[in-house]
Amino acid sequence: MASLLEMKEIFRNADAVCFDVDSTVIREEGIDELAKFCGVGDAVAEMTRRAMGGTVTFKAALTARLGLIRPSYEQVQKLISDNPPQLTPGIRELVSRLHQRGVQVFLVSGGFQSIVEHVASQLNIPTANVFANRLKFYFNGEYAGFDETQPTAESGGKGKVITQLKEQFHFQKVVMIGDGATDMEACPPADCFIGFGGNVIRKQVKEKAKWYITHFDELLKELEE
């Protein structure tokens, strides 16, 4: 296992940085916001807590939560326009600095493609660099399930995405940054995991992550040195 100094070295020399989105790049959990918007907030928040604690598989939790919410296409679009996701302070500057250094930035999320693409556009991240779950709708716009073939729909899916990126782009050093158990699990294949507690602190991640930050300024400072 790499020491903290070695991890900082990996981060400074990374070819690619992958960010989780919910409670990391944005302040809220997209699925919880969608649930509130659709009137089933409390029930879904409880399921999210269990999923983040790692007691149920990600896919089982996602299926159950979406089965309760059953969001229509119109509701998803209205959520994005009426309550757009709030960027976490410092993320815009950090992504911009990484881009200036020629580092590829990816958003790897268990959240929903339409919401994550909206976030990506605010950070000048191309949609090709977004990996998230796709909701499916019937022709009349009603909820029809989600695309279960996406790697992000499974436990361990973020690691699969990183393996795929390494194979496709021959990246030598990939960093994963996130708040949850599914982010920490992605290292390896990620070469370094940075735990983020700026929006919510997950006890298990804080205790196990060798490098744990609560503000993106801490990473900006690393790049300035």
Secondary-structure topology with pairs:
Blueprint: H1 4-12, E1 16-19, H2 21-25, H3 30-37, H4 41-52, H5 58-69, H6 73-82, H7 91-100, E2 104-112, H8 113-122, E3 130-133, E4 135-137, E5 143-146, H9 157-169, E6 174-178, H10 181-184, E7 192-196, H11 203-208, E8 212-213, H12 217-224
Parallel strand pairs: 1-2, 1-6, 2-3, 6-7, 7-8
Antiparallel strand pairs: 4-5
Helix pairs in contact: 3-4, 4-5, 7-12
Q: Characteristics of this structure?
A:
Rossmann fold; DNA polymerase, domain 1; 6-stranded parallel β-sheet
- What percentage of residues falls in helices of 4 or more residues? 40-55%
* Helix/sheet category: alpha/beta
Judging by the overall fold, what is the CATH architecture of the largest domain?
A: 3-Layer(aba) Sandwich
Q: What would the average pLDDT be, to the nearest integer? A: 87
Total separate domains:
2
SSE sequence, one letter per element:
HEHHHHHHEHEEEHEHEHEH
Rounded radius of gyration (Å): 17 Å
Oligomer: single chain
Shape: globular
GO molecular function, one term: magnesium ion binding
EC number: 3.1.3.3
Keywords: Amino-acid biosynthesis, Hydrolase, Magnesium, Metal-binding, Serine biosynthesis
Organism: Balaeniceps rex
Please describe what this structure looks like.
The radius of gyration is 17 Å and the shape is globular. The two termini are 24 Å apart. The chain folds into two domains: 164 residues, Rossmann fold (3-Layer(aba) Sandwich); 49 residues, DNA polymerase, domain 1, CATH 1.10.150. It is built from twelve helices and eight strands. The strands form two sheets. Strands 3-2-1-6-7-8 form a six-stranded parallel β-sheet, sandwiched between helices. A two-stranded antiparallel sheet has the order 4-5. Helix 8 links the parallel strand 2 and strand 3. The model has no long low-confidence stretch (mean pLDDT 87). With 225 residues, the chain is α/β, with parallel strands linked by helices. The longest helix has 13 residues. Helix 7 packs parallel to helix 12.
